[in-house]
From TrEMBL:
<protein>
    <submittedName>
        <fullName>Uracil phosphoribosyltransferase</fullName>
    </submittedName>
</protein>
<dbReference type="Pfam" id="PF14681">
    <property type="entry name" value="UPRTase"/>
</dbReference>
<keyword id="KW-0808">Transferase</keyword>
<keyword id="KW-0328">Glycosyltransferase</keyword>
<dbReference type="InterPro" id="IPR029057">
    <property type="entry name" value="PRTase-like"/>
</dbReference>
<dbReference type="GO" id="GO:0016757">
    <property type="term" value="F:glycosyltransferase activity"/>
</dbReference>
<feature type="domain" description="Phosphoribosyltransferase">
    <location>
        <begin position="12"/>
        <end position="214"/>
    </location>
</feature>
<dbReference type="InterPro" id="IPR050137">
    <property type="entry name" value="PyrR_bifunctional"/>
</dbReference>
<dbReference type="InterPro" id="IPR000836">
    <property type="entry name" value="PRTase_dom"/>
</dbReference>
Length: 217
């Protein structure tokens, strides 16, 4: 897996991540969602540079011009719930992409820190031979992405996978390194050092799903 960590670069992306982390700003859920969406646009733009391109001839009112445009068949799949604004950002740049949605939630069987990830909904076209973009703002333990990849086994083998995320933890990134095919790219806005005992990213930003859409039972 190739990791593209943008926290090592100076760009306006860092401002959006800061606002998502900041306890005095993040409770404004509309702003929180908007920041996720615009980070989705920025990561999409960066990712677009690595896609496959073809030459097309465009006719203008005064002549013709050869231009290079992405030729890839793209399926964008978002992991509910927090990825929904990220999805909006991605498809605002890849407007011809097919769309998929998958659910995943943590189940704590004995109420303690240990959990398993339950995936019980996947709506997706075939991804056979296509470019699969998986979006999820948080990459904590990496178990969600591991289970999402398993769920996709019934939907064909993608040509390549791009994971778009906002904040990840080093242990989670290491965990998925050998679970995903080698030519998988991870595009991530920030990487934090560790997780707490419940598998939350430290310092992270809290619960992205709740901040974007409200507390769930
Ligand atoms: O890497 P992991 O340890 O698997 O954790 C990451 C997952 O946790 C969060 O979802 P959450 O379960 O809070 O669901 P929500 O988005 O519906 O609130 C996040 O959006 C990821 O999907």
């Amino acid at each position: 897996m190739i990791v593209h960590d943008f926290s090592n670069e100076n760009s306006v992306l860092n401002q959006f991540v800061l606002e998502m982390r900041d306890v005095s700003i993040q409770k404004d859920s509309m702003r929180f969602r908007k920041n996720i969406e615009r980070i989705g646009e920025i990561l999409s733009y960066e990712m677009s540079k690595t896609l496959h391109y073809k030459t097309e001839v465009v006719k203008t009112p005064l002549g013709e011009k050869e231009m290079k445009v992405p030729e890839t068949d793209i399926v964008v799949c978002s992991i509910l719930r927090a990825a929904l604004p990220l999805h909006t950002g991605v498809i605002s740049f890849f407007d011809k992409a097919e769309n998929a949605y998958i659910s995943a939630f943590r189940h704590h069987p004995d109420g303690g820190d240990a959990f398993e990830v339950i995936v019980n909904y996947l709506a997706s076209p075939s991804v056979e031979g296509k470019t699969l973009i998986l979006t999820d703002p948080m990459l904590a333990t990496g178990k969600t992405l591991e289970n999402v990849l398993k769920a996709f086994k019934s939907h064909g083998m993608p040509k390549e996978i791009h994971i778009l995320s906002i904040i990840g933890a080093k242990p989670g990134i290491a965990y998925i390194q050998d679970k995903f095919p080698e030519n998988t790219h991870l595009w991530i806005a920030a990487v934090d050092e560790k997780l707490n005992s419940r598998g939350y990213i430290l310092p992270g930003l809290g619960d992205a799903g709740d901040l974007a859409f409200g507390v769930k039972l």
